Amino acid sequence: xxxxxxxxxxxxxxxxxxxxxxxxxxxxxxxxxxxxxxxxxxxxxxxxxxxxxxxxxxxxxxxxxxxxxxxxxxxxxxxxxxxxxxxxxxxxxxxxxxxxxxxxxxxxxxxxxxxxxxxxxxxxxxxxxxxxxxxxxxxxxxxxxxxxxxxxxxxxxxxxxxxxxxxxxxxxxxxxxxxxxxxxxxxxxx
Length: 190
Hints:
The chain is mostly beta strands. The protein has no helices and 11 strands.
């Protein structure tokens, strides 16, 4: 099967729920104000692409490659990143809503989450060492067997992380956030 290549193209205000995105390898492309909600982008390759103000909620991303992609202002509810191709998987997120998404068992060290809504996101068994959760809301996020060594939580909020079930060596936390490391003990901290 021949695969087509799309380089350095801008897709503006496209609704891929009515007309599917052509299966291809996309490099250095920008997707702006596009709707991918509940569509299949399975087996696609996105290399050095930017997604701005897009809706990717519940999209099928099985075996999809996101290689050094950035997401800004995107709605990404229930996305199963754990089903993506792990080969060269890397991305960053800024002001994105990732509620109910899964990063289970992924190796995504140094991932940057800036001002993101990460409520009820599954980070279990993920390699998130040196990740940065700048100004992100982690209410209900699942950390279990997660490598968070050198991760930055200093401006993150509403997280609950069990230090006994996760690697948190040299991770950064603010004094205000320390209660999130003690939740399992049901202490009253004032």
